[in-house]
Amino acid sequence: MTKRLESKYKINRRLGVNLWGRAKSPINKRETIPGQHGARRKQKPTDFGVQLMAKQKLKGYYGNIGEKQFRKYYEEAVRRKGDTSENLIALLERRLDCVVYRMKLAVTPFAARQFVNHGHVLVNGKRLNISSYQVKDNDLIEVKEKSKQMTVVLDAVQNGERDVPEYIEIDHRAMRGRFVRAPKLSDVPYPVQMEPNLVVEFYSR
Q: Can you give the pTM of this predicted structure?
């Protein structure tokens, strides 16, 4: 297992959940948090701890987004009209790497980010290598012609661990799809319970 994979799965153990619902996650075998004394360090969390855990869970799920960038998403969610927690989820789901992941063109959010960063994805016919790019309603996302037969893409398409949500359209034969609309929290197929309302409480303290 590479250092990157070890680090990724440590997030699962630290949070005590199988964040991406993967069969390979070590949390399925060992639920203790990382560290020499992980088995003995479980304590009842404070309100602050619960809010922090909700934030770390949401950040981790989307490929461990950096704190500075994640806070910008919160600030933008506050600025927009409507429910702040729903706005936050919509902004995260509009990320290009997340859309690629939802389309099942990559097995994990980490793989989706790398796939985008390496220039394998076109948005409305133009190559885009910015994983945080905000996809708009009805944007056409497709895999570059030369990249359509890559093993990582074919393996992801055939992976049966999850389904494509209804706010995404995808033709896996053509490796082309469309972002239909921003989802509500209830539309997003999280393998674990997400609590963006607690994230809002954390930042608004």
A: 0.84
